[in-house]
Specification:
CATH architecture: Up-down Bundle
Distance between the termini: 62 Å
Number of helices: 10
CATH superfamily: Outer membrane efflux proteins (OEP)
Helix content: 55-70%
CATH class: Mainly Alpha
Structural class: alpha+beta
Strand order of the largest sheet: 1-2-3-4
Radius of gyration: 38 Å
Length: 435
């Protein structure tokens, strides 16, 4: 019995340890995107708006169909049928069908315009997904950058601490001056302060990503290594603009709204055209007592109504639609200019950071060799303490530039993909059938 209890306790401990290890495991970018997108308010709002637009489109389509109904009448009346006065009780049931056959082509215009509104709402959803992916991935890469910087800062602090301890022991033995000991200690404090600043920025990056992921605490949040999405920064601007025009959600939404507002404008206001209605009726029962001399069992009628407003409302409505079309066209031009301007800046940043990658890699390698040689020369007494500390600082500066360059490259690639309209598609998080 005791053996069984021990085995069970060991199994529970192993399971608890596995769960803890899983919780503390580094987040991958696909996992972060999946969890953050599931709770992103902007994406949820855009998805709800797209569903509402599709429902409105179905409502507009239903305007071409007739309406059917049932009328039940129960009442009393005092009728005069000379020379008699009759107290009549009415109980009647009637089925009817009404169909608007012509409404000045307003129904067709509204259906076509509502289709463009649904397309614009779908494009807004694509834009919300792309922006959310960029926002989440940018927070992910920012934390990854801070992790790398913190690791380098810790390595630098350990090196300087070893150097400071060595110089302090030499100063205690009288082999070096107190000034060198003070210089080494000052360098140690500088490295410690730099690490504290980087760790504070790392915690801020953790907090930002934790909010996006819906985590209550981000103290132990870590992210795994990942490459940024590829981006063709050398693509010809005209070809890139053609791609953005086909895929960028903001661009597609603005273009769809322009088409929708244009479709709502009629050459002749529908209020100036007649209305044609079909009315079918059939009696279900008639228990009127006493019965009138005649009663209708079934019938149909076609009515033409021509009602013209005299206050100028139709013309004002047409003016409003033309003004809204002009507003939509101006918005499309603004979106086009903004996307192309942002893309130009992102392309330059992507090209510059890509060209700097091999140079910075060579610089890091050279400075590692310089520092190692300087340490040997310091041990041999051919290089001063100040020179060695300066080599440490310069190497750390090159390492920082390399990490910052990688972060800026990831930022540029994310922006280019988002502006091109295929960032969410590249990450594989598009809704089914959204594109």
């Amino acid at each position: 019995m005791a053996r069984h209890i021990l085995v069970a306790a060991l199994c529970l401990a192993w399971l608890a340890g596995s769960a803890t290890a899983q919780d503390e495991a580094a987040w991958t970018l696909p996992r972060a995107l999946e969890q953050a997108l599931a709770r992103d308010a902007r994406v949820a709002g855009a998805r709800a708006n797209a569903q509402a637009a599709r429902a409105q489109q179905r409502q507009a389509d239903s305007r071409l169909w007739p309406s059917a109904g049932l009328r039940l009448t129960h009442g009393r009346s005092s009728d005069r049928d000379p020379p008699f006065v009759l107290e009549r009780t009415t109980r009647r049931g009637e089925a009817f069908l009404r169909w608007n056959l012509f409404n000045g082509l307003e129904d067709q215009r509204q259906i076509a315009a509502q289709e463009f509104d649904a397309i614009a709402a779908e494009a807004d959803l694509l834009q919300a997904l792309d922006e959310a992916c960029e926002r989440i991935a940018a927070a992910y890469f920012t934390l990854l950058r801070q992790q790398h910087l913190a690791q380098l800062a810790r390595e630098r602090l350990r090196e300087v601490e070893r150097l400071a301890a060595r110089v302090a022991s030499q100063a205690a033995l009288g082999k070096t001056s107190d000034a060198d000991a003070q210089l080494a200690e000052a360098s140690r404090i500088d490295a410690q302060l730099a690490l504290q600043g980087i760790e504070a920025e790392q915690q801020a990056a953790r907090s930002r990503l934790a909010v996006l992921l819906g985590l209550q605490q981000g103290a132990g949040l870590r992210v795994a290594e990942v490459l940024p999405p590829p981006a063709d920064a050398d693509l010809e601007p005209r070809a890139w603009a053609d791609q953005a025009e086909r895929q960028n959600g903001q661009w597609l939404a603005a273009a769809a709204r322009v088409a929708g507002t244009r479709r709502r404008i009629a050459s002749i206001a529908p209020e100036y055209l007649p209305r044609l209605d079909l009315d079918l009726r059939r009696s279900l029962y008639d228990r009127t007592d006493p019965q009138p001399t005649t009663s209708q069992r079934h019938g149909w009628s076609v009515g033409v109504t021509w009602e013209v407003p005299l206050g100028g409302a139709p013309r004002a409505r047409q003016d409003e639609l033309r003004a809204r079309a002009a507003l939509a066209e101006a918005e499309l031009q603004r979106v086009r200019d903004e996307v192309q301007t942002d893309a130009g800046a992102a392309r330059e940043q992507a090209r510059q950071t890509a060209s700097a990658v091999p140079q910075l890699a060579q610089q890091r390698q050279r400075w590692e060799q310089v520092v190692r040689a300087s340490e040997l020369q310091f041990d041999a007494g051919r290089r001063s303490l100040m020179q060695l500390i300066d080599q440490y600082d310069r190497r750390f500066g090159v390492q920082q530039r390399d990490i910052d360059n990688a972060w800026q490259q990831a930022e540029a690639h994310l922006r280019l993909r988002r502006l091109a309209g295929d960032l969410a598609e590249w990450f594989g998080v598009l809704d089914g059938g959204a594109r």
